[in-house]
Amino acid sequence: LVFDRDNYLYISAGERGDRPRAQDVNDHAGSIIRLHDDGRVPKDNPFVGQSNAKPEIYSYGHRNPQGMTLHPKTGEVWTHEHGPQGGDEINIIHSGKNYGWPIITYGVNYGWGTKIGEGTHKSGMEQPLYYWDPSIAPSGMAFYQGDKFPQWQGNLFVGSLKFKLLVRLELKDNKVIKEERLIAGQYGRIRDVRNGPDGYLYLLTDESDGQLLRLEPD
User: Fold this and answer.
1) Which of 14, 18, 116, 176 has the most crowded Cβ, counting Cβ within 10 A?
2) Angle 37-204-108 from CA coordinates, rounded to 5°
C-alpha cells in the first residue's frame, strides 16, 4: 500500500498463481488498484466507464507486485514484482499500462525451465525498468533520503529473501547504472527496508528470531 502526493491510495494485487487473471481487466488479480482515501474510485482511472473492466484498476499484467514506493523527486509510483524462475522486475506504474505477465517475461517455468508466453517483448506491453535473473525474491523497497549516507542519496534499496541480502541500486535518468549487494547472508531473509527519521536505514528480517536492524556508516 502506498499513498501518493495527491493522497490517492495504490494497492498491489498478485495473480494468485492463475496466470490469465493478470491480463483480465475485469479481475483485480495481477493489477495495481488506485482509490481515493475514502475508498471512492477516481474519475480519471483508466477503465472507468468501460464495460467488462474493474474501475479500480490502474495498471495490469503484473505477476506478484510486493514492494512499492514513491520516487522522491518525481512522485511516481515504483513497484517491484516476483517473477517465476528469473525475471523479478522493477516497474514505474503508469495509468492503463499493461506490464505483460504472463505474455512477456524474463523468467521461465519452475523446474522445467521452459518458455512462458511469447518471449520478452511485445508491442503494447511495458518493459521493466530493471530485472533480475536469477531471481532475488525481492521484498521491501525504499529510496534513501537521509543525511547519514550522503553517497547513497536517491539510491533505491530492495530487500532480498532468497539471497538474504540488501540490494543497492544507483540510478541515473530512471536507469540502473550500478548494483551493489550488501550484508549477504549475515542476518537472514530481509523482509522490509525503510528510511528512518534519523537518517539511518532500517531493515526487518523474517527469521524465527527475526530482528529490527539499523544500518550505520562505518
Assistant:
1) 116
2) 85
Give the Cα separation of 156 and 22 in Å (integer). 26
Mean local confidence (pLDDT), 177-182 = 98
pLDDT in tens, 100-140: 999 999 999 998 999 999 999 999 999 999 999 999 999 99
Decide if 9 contacts 35 (C-beta within 8 A): yes
CA distance 27 to 182: 38
In 3D, which of 111, 113, 161 has the Cα closest to residue 141?
Answer: 161
d(CA 20, CA 29): 9
Across-strand partners of 89?
81, 131
| Vertex 81 angle, CA 80 and 87, to 5° | 110
Query: Comparing C-alpha atoms, which of 74, 68, 61 is closest to residue 5?
Result: 74
